[in-house]
Design a protein that fits this description.
This protein is of the alpha+beta class and about 80 residues long. Helix content is about 25%, strand content about 35%. It is globular.
Length: about 80
């Protein structure tokens, strides 16, 4: 597995409920190794196998929770 790190800018993250909601939507996805939601920076960081859990799939998981993804970047981990 080649691990990719994707960062999603989510301006609407403002509390621990937001954090829990987003982590709960992304963590169970196949191919996701780690998810971290930084409330202060309004940033979601996901380490994942891009062949299994693509960036658009991660964005979709966040948006299904009612949050807009304003931007993203990704690259190989390590």
């Amino acid at each position: 597995m080649s691990t990719t790190r994707t960062r999603l800018a989510v301006p609407e993250i403002s509390c621990e409920h937001c954090k829990s909601s987003i982590e709960g939507a992304i963590a169970p996805l196949a191919g996701v190794a780690r998810v971290d939601v930084d409330v202060e920076r309004r940033l979601v960081t996901v380490d994942h196998d891009a062949a299994v859990a693509s960036a658009p799939r991660l964005v979709d998981a966040v948006e299904r929770q009612g949050y807009e993804v304003a931007g993203q970047d990704e690259g190989p981990l390590g």
